[in-house]
Amino acid sequence: MELGKKRFKKIFPKLAEEMETDENRFGISSVRSDLSVAERASGKRFDNYVPDAVDYIRRCDSEKQAEEIVDYLERRNEITNEYAHRLRKQLKAKGVRSFGPKKQDDYYSRAE
Questions:
Q1: Which of 72, 60, 65 minimizes the C-alpha distance to 102?
Q2: Mind listing the pLDDT tens digit of every residue in the chain (112 residues)?
Q3: Angle at CA 24, nearest 5°, toward 22 and 28?
Q4: In 3-state terms, what secondary structure has residue 63?
């Protein structure tokens, strides 16, 4: 079934609009036809990745847990006092979810 541009726009107006703008584009760096090769490659996405303070905060269930994380990182000099202050300020004003949705235990092992 062939679909002309005009008909496509009529049936899928929002999709057509998105396709005509550069706003939501992203590049594809490679294509793999062998599933096992693709799985191994996508599993390496977070190799050598070191989580930062926000990554740890996003694993927290409560504001109290997040405060403990910030205190710990500040005590170990893994974050500056100024950055810790900004994190605490955001935490108090906007809550723990203002840093992003909760990261589950298998976040880094899942291919996203």
A1: 60
A2: 677 888 888 998 888 888 888 776 666 555 555 666 555 555 555 566 678 899 899 999 999 999 999 999 999 999 999 999 999 999 999 999 998 888 876 665 554 4
A3: 95
A4: helix
